[in-house]
């Protein structure tokens, strides 16, 4: 699996956000998130300053409700009237960290060894949605 695959699987599993039932599924998600987070953290280590500035930009332009940032699916929500300003700030930030971002992109395409705890399809709850199944697909054992 590439580092990009690890990152995508981590994002998928963390976006489930506790909305899935079943002890085997929950255990697999928990173990995999723990294993994948170590890889994701090491990948992002060279982008700490970028991430800190990105967080400030997100907080500066995000929608607020009673002074608190508004999130949906672990992402900030932005009003249409600030999108141009937000995009310009992100473009400027990306330019400032151009070298670091290029190195990060190269890292994402490298192969990575990480332990993935897989579960059988029959362990997945029957009332799961298509989007949830899609998010779990990377940890489901494929039947031969």
Class from secondary-structure proportions: mainly alpha
Number of helices: 6
Quick check: average pLDDT? 91
> What would you call the shape?
globular
C-alpha termini separation:
20 Å
Strand neighbour order, sheet with most strands: 1-2
Share in helix: 55-70%
What Rg is obtained from the alpha carbons, in whole angstroms?
Answer: 18 Å
Q: Give the biggest sheet.
A: 2 strands, antiparallel
Give the strand content.
Answer: 5-15%
Weakly predicted, low-confidence segments: none
Number of domains: 1
Give structural notes.
- The chain has one domain.
- The protein is built from six helices and four strands; from the N terminus they run αααββββααα.
- The protein has helices spanning 3-15, 23-44, 48-61, 83-96, 98-108, 130-136, and strands at residues 64-65, 68-69, 71-72, 75-76.
- The chain has a two-stranded antiparallel ribbon with strand order 1-2. Strands 3-4 form a two-stranded antiparallel ribbon.
- A hairpin with a 2-residue loop joins strand 1 and strand 2.
- The longest helix is centred in the N-terminal third of the chain and has 22 residues, at 23-44.
- It is globular and about 50 Å long.
